[in-house]
Amino acid sequence: MKKFIAAALALALAPALSPGLAVGQELTGTLKKIKDTGSITIGHRESSVPFSYLDDKQQPIGFAMDICLKIVDAIKAELKMDKLDIKYNPVTSATRIPLLANGTIDLECGSTTNNLDRQKQVSYTNTHFLTATRLVTKKASNIKSIDDLKGKTIVSTAGTTNIKQMNELNTAKGLGMTILSGKDHAESFLMVETDRALAFAMDDILLASLAAGAKDPSAFEISKDAFSAPEPYGIMIPKDDAAFKAVADKATAAIYKAEGPALFKKWFQSPIAPKNLNLNFELSPQLAKMFSSPQSTADPAAY
Amino acid sequence: MNYNWNWGIYWQQSPEGTGTYAMLLLSGLQWTIITALCAWVIALAIGSTVGVMRTLPSKWANRFAGAWIELFRNIPILVQLFLWFFVLPELLPKTMGTALKQLPNAPFYIAVVGLGFATSARVAVQVAAGVKSLPRGQTMAGYALGLSTAQTYQHVLLPMAFRIVLPPLTSEFLNLIKNTSVALTIGLLELTFRARTMQEYSFQVFEAFTAATVLYLILNVLVVFGARALERSVAVPGYMGGGK
Amino acid sequence: MDIIISFLGFFVSLIVGILQFLIPNFDGDVVNRSWQYLFFEGMRFTLLLTLLATVLGIALGTVIALMRLSGIAPLVWFATGYTTLFRSLPLVLVIFWFYFLLPYIGAWAWGMDRPMTVGAFNSALVTFTLFEAAYFAEIMRAGIQSIPKGQAAAGHALGLNYRQVMTTIVLPQAFRNMLPVLLTQTIVLFQDTSLVYVLALTDFLGAASKVAQRDGRLVEMYLFAAVIYFIVSFSLSLLVKRLQDRVAIIR
């Protein structure tokens, strides 16, 4: 309630209080909102390790979070603001797009696949990762291929491209699988851990991180087969806001070229919170190319 | 307002490949109705028993019924469903627990049991209130005629008590229908969940939730009318505003 | 403040001890490590939401009840439509409605070109206030109607206008009569706040759930949450029963 009144007051008084802008620059859209309210709201995930997740103190950290914070610095410099208040809003796969579309968050920093369907609702800045859909299963259940799951129960997370793909695969191949829907990745993985589902379909990097952080990592295996074409992850930004996208694109291109591999090493090849595990993920040639020539297209062939 | 209206979305195919979005929502409605009806059967059966126990002369029955009612009334329904769904299988022996977890349609059975027990407490309160509202003379007359306690309840008290509490019981049934939506958290594919699914796939927030709202309102109206017809048909002439 | 913490801590250890005795393999440690987060983040959110929604809900509910009893056709229709609508819909559905659409509604109402930033807590507050107002309206309506017409007539005879009669004679009595029912509805509200789980908000249940999923301890956290909810609701309902007895004597 108080925040609402404060925001309303800030909006009303902003014209009187905001310092003069650079000559000839009329701010619109999200940049205007950030300048007027003096704050930016970042949407983050709670269990998308290592992109965006909560550490032991319930603070959001991660690879995508680092990139986002640098975007925020770029915005601060661009708008010539002394202080920019950063607010954090947790999102799930199911809520990230509606919350970006309705203005609750200004940036979504997580593990969101960039595709054309979603570009009808939101926009993306330069891609920060490439991934594909795989399955994680318990070694004990001996699942070797998707056909082993005929008539069985699998799980995926609500609102993801993966659950959509699994549904389509289920119908196309007539597998008769029961597809459960988890609220977030931790819950979905827990379903496999507690034998409620035989497999969890998700992007391979997220599966690797969840399995590494489990109570008994050696009990799990990730399928060799991929069930989708390689998909790019992008940080989501509001649709139809060219000025904001320009700032974000410029900032991310600069970060990737200068520090891309170093940031990658920090999150994928070193011990990370909260259990100090090292994912030991390889920097593939595709990922290296993605850092050196940043782009924000949804077309997998471009990578 | 940059929202992309699309009222034709209902006739588009859902990505789940099982039909249009309209069919998705209707399948959700189907689950809602079936879950509510099955849970209501359990709630009535257990609730009436516990309600009667609450009014019996026996102190033990009273205390047990009182404890039952307090237990299920003071824990939120969502928490109760979680206990049934997540905690119960872990407390059972390993084989039973795993079988329960991998049961096809497990959310349905758990939702029916969970909602049934939760609502039984409220039904019990209503039934007890109905029995207690009858004049003490009714019970005494029953005993005077040589009827046992069980027979007095069966032939004298309960028929009138149920007629008296038909309106509050209808309210409880409507509450039960609404509470089926809470079961979406354990994966029951009911109407609100389907509306949410539709919103997630198509991004048409307004359209999805409007359809669900309209369907719930229609269901509500149907139940209210049905209940009124039932009240009229079982009303005892000359008693409490019933019949002519 | 420290006294509260140590008292709560002692209380929690007691509950953990009992649960550990009753349930085999109960890992009480996870509760001992996380109860501060559960209470000071989760329970704080729950209680704040309950309190604010109750106060605002009763205020709005009273207004709607008055509209319903006013006899002015458009007001009666609005009030009847409002209460019927919100009492026919599941709370979960209403929560989703407001969470996604409040920013659009706000932007439309305030004539903004971009959706308004509302935030999760504010959205939940608006949802619960508007939803519970429908129930409070029915309670207040019953309360107002239970006041003998002679009271209002006497007020008018003394030369008081409608507003004065309502605020000084009818509403205070109605409120006092319905206090036990209003408080019972508040207890229901307290339990209903657990439904913000569907928005992944950190109320008491949400906090317990987050710890449960992060540490893989569903049994421990959900049992603990159930026990706490039971204790709070049961204690409050005992207080309401006490209050009901005292009010009955006064009348």
Structural summary, described in words:
The complex is a heterotrimer of chains A (303), B (244) and C (251). With 303 residues, chain A is α/β, with parallel strands linked by helices. Chain A is built from nine helices and 17 strands. Chain A has a five-stranded mixed sheet, with helices on both faces. In chain A, strands 5-1-6 form a three-stranded parallel sheet. Chain A has a three-stranded antiparallel sheet with strand order 2-3-4. The N and C termini of chain A lie far apart (46 Å). Residues 12-24 of chain A have low confidence and may be disordered. In chain B, helix 1 packs antiparallel against helix 9 and helix 8 (166-179) packs antiparallel against helix 10. Chain B has helices spanning 21-55, 59-73, 77-91, 94-101, 106-132, 136-144, 149-164, 166-179, 191-202, 205-234. Chain B has a domain at 33-188: MetI-like (MetI-like fold, Orthogonal Bundle). Chain B is globular and about 75 Å long. Chain C has 251 residues and is mostly helical. Chain C has a domain at 47-215: MetI-like (MetI-like fold, Orthogonal Bundle), CATH 1.10.3720.10. In chain C, 84% of the residues lie in helices and 0% in strands. Chain C is built from nine helices and no strands. Chain C is globular. Chain B binds chain C through residues 1-3, 70-71, 73-80, 82-83, 86-87, 90-91, 174, 178-182, 184-185, 192, 195-196, 199, 205-206, 209, 212-213, 216-217, 220, and chain C through 23, 85, 88-93, 96-97, 100-101, 104, 107-108, 114-115, 191-192, 194-195, 197-198, 205, 218-219, 222-223, 225-226, 229-230, 233-234, 237.
